[in-house]
Amino acid sequence: MPSPSADVQPVSPKRSQIDRIGVRVLDEMVEMIVTGTVAIGEYLPPEQALCEEFGVSRTVIRECIKRMQEKGLVVVAQGRGTQVRHFNDWNVLDPDVLDALVRHDESLGVLDEVSVVRATLEGVMAGEVAATGSEESHLTIGGHLDDMRRLQDDNPAFLEADMEFHLAVMAASKNRIAATIARSYFVRPRQSARWDGMNPVDAIERTLEEHERVFEAIRAGDAAAARVAMEEHILGSWRRRRHPDGAHHLSP
């Protein structure tokens, strides 16, 4: 029998359909918990019932439950079932959990809280850049501000430059933990229509002015002013465009 050619590579197994189905089932099970369909402290239906509900095998259900354990959503108690954990145990930085929370944020309370966390973290980082930032980092941040000035008549491009300004401040702070959390709470909520809200007619002008104040404080080396300017910008911007419905979680 001829020996196999040296160039023949082993065939990689194709990604199984179970994986693709599992992603859909996992999304739906996360939503069951986030929306309170299965409330905190309650137990998920038994495995067999979940198999019938989603039309999948026990293998898929077990993998999804394992993934939900990793996200802090559930705990499996031997002989008792799979119990939904308290909200404080959920990994709200997990993309699936955060996406579901934002998607079902009827009261806008989640986006209120996201704005508070962002304002605090980005305020701290802006202060760090003012205190220790290099001339190179100032040039990078200032370059994104120049883009914002230039792109005021192109809303999507202006918003992109706005995002790059914030990301540049985070990077220049060298606070990796704060930057990782703030990036999650900055980038993902922007995918929600609720985050856009109802911008006033002068939104771009006011946003640009607020970024100017942040940058002026950074360039002047005034850490306290940079922190305050960034916090006021983030909270003020959200208050301006926030729909006036639901429970308000922000101080006036």
List keywords for this structure.
252 residues; mainly alpha; 3% strand; elongated
Write the layout of secondary structure elements.
Blueprint: H1 17-34, H2 47-54, H3 58-70, E1 74-77, E2 81-84, H4 95-103, H5 109-132, H6 135-150, H7 155-173, H8 176-187, H9 193-196, H10 203-220, H11 223-241
Antiparallel strand pairs: 1-2
Helix pairs in contact: 1-3, 1-4, 2-3, 5-7, 5-8, 5-10, 5-11, 6-7, 6-10, 7-8, 10-11
Notes on the structure:
The protein is mainly alpha-helical. The chain is built from eleven helices and two strands. The chain has a two-stranded antiparallel sheet. Helix 5 packs antiparallel against helix 8, helix 5 packs antiparallel against helix 11 and helix 6 runs antiparallel to helix 7. It starts with 16 loop residues before the first helix and ends in an 11-residue tail after the last helix. The N terminus is likely disordered.
